[in-house]
Design a protein that fits this description.
- It contains 14 helices and no strands.
- Helix 4 crosses helix 5 (98-111), helix 4 packs antiparallel against helix 10 (173-183) and helix 11 packs across helix 13.
- The radius of gyration is 32 Å and the shape is globular.
- With 303 residues, the protein is mainly alpha-helical.
- The chain has helices at 3-28, 33-39, 53-70, 83-92, 98-111, 115-119, 123-130, 136-153, 162-165, 173-183, 193-201, 210-220, 226-239, 267-271.
Amino acid sequence: MAEKPVAKKAAAKKAVKAAEPAKAAAKKAPATPAKAAKTAPARLAKPAKPESHLSMVRRARRINRELAEVYPYAHPELDFRNPFELLVATVLSAQTTDLRVNQTTPALFAAYPTPEDLAAADPEAVEQLIRPTGFFRAKTKSIMGLAAALRDDFGGNVPGRLDDLVKLPGVGRKTANVVLGNAFGVPGITVDTHFGRLVRRWKWTDEEDPVKVEAVVAEIFPKSEWTMLSHRVVFHGRRICHARKPACGACPIAPLCPAYGEGETDPEKAKKLLKYEKGGFPGQRLSPPPDYPGLPAPPLAAG
């Protein structure tokens, strides 16, 4: 009879030892969602609150105001003396730089100063003059075609309406808005690769189609700002907010940019990425406006 308590104690010890691995496994096992919610809410980071449309509009308009202070001299970077020259230069600027166009057009306009002259030109001679801009055969067809249309349909004058401009060979909405905004003073938003890239980085829109981008941005800003907004954004894209390696550490609007950190954030390294007048180098125009703080670009023979 005295041995029964001893047997019970031994059995109890065996049961405790058998339960120890299960307890250890339970401690190592991840907590269930319900348990985690009860035990660790203080350690969970709260997700960022999505930006409202109103907040985005306010931020976008502030970016525009700050860019106006950074680039008070923003301007079209194609050399031109009249609407016809701007129209032709803009068509030639496709798939090349404004600098290369500016280095090419002086000889072109010296040879063919009017739509009538260009429409009657020898295509091979035009091709040789604009060869440096690339795709010279297709571009020759476009500029000679639009010159003929101006001669035949508009009395040799460039029309000041978007609906008329986009009917000309080689002229789309981007080119039409460049001409309207800078030759006629008609507000327009120019959605080139720089503009599209930056407005997406700034989360103004996710649209990729230029026409849709134009429509979205037009709703954010008053019409009076459209042309200069285009210049400022393009200036910023060419000088600081580059496609492959933005100079984030030298960007004056970094606090307003959701994409900050995509590029170089070290200030000294970022300064070395700056282009044109921001980096102390010549700009794209051979004949820049009087208030442009940078150096004029060299003619074609010099560079």
